[in-house]
Amino acid sequence: MARVQRAVRMVLVIFFVLSVGEVFGAQNSVKENRDIVLSPADQLILDRIDKFARELNNRIDQVNIRIDQVNIRIDNLDQGLNARIDNLWITMMGGFLGVMGFIGALVFWDRRTFMKRATYEISLELKEDREKMNGIIAALKKLGARFPEVSEALRSFGIL
């Protein structure tokens, strides 16, 4: 990492030096351009700077390629994660709807069972009440034979 930072700094320094010379050269365009002859030492320095710049560009390109590969991997992981989240969401909704359907069916089945049981118990109570009423009517009919007022009251209600 430190090597990359040093290399980036060096490229920036070289770029600054070259761009400043180019800017000042453009500003002095009125003056005559003279051919500059470089000494072998200067030429060697420029060649090394050029070689270093090419190597640095190659390294930066390799880092960019690696970053692109990492970005592709992250995108693939993101797509896989989104697909898993979608599947989880669908599974959760299906489970929720299944539980709600089960509860609804249980309530409906329990209501039907409750209604059958309630109807049966009511019919038993009505049967007991009917037997009691029949007994009371039979007793009143016996009393009506002895007491004419009772038999008159039973006739008025349509029992006799």
Concise account of the structure shown:
With 160 residues, the chain is an all-alpha fold.
Structure description:
The protein is mainly α. The protein is built from three helices and no strands. Helix 1 (about 1-25) packs across helix 2 and helix 2 crosses helix 3 (about 150-155). The N and C termini lie far apart (about 115 Å). About 0% of the residues are buried.
Summarize the SSE layout with pairings:
Blueprint: H1 2-27, H2 40-146, H3 148-156
Helix pairs in contact: 1-2, 2-3
**In percent terms, what proportion of residues is strand?**
under 5%
The biggest beta sheet is recorded as: none
Determine the mean pLDDT.
83
Number of strand elements? 0
Distance separating the two termini: 115 Å
Secondary structure class reads mainly alpha
Give the low-pLDDT segments: none
Rounded to an integer in angstroms, the radius of gyration calculated over CA atoms is 53 Å
Tertiary shape:
rod-shaped
SS summary, helix count = 3
Helix content: over 70%
The ordered string of helix (H) and strand (E) elements is HHH
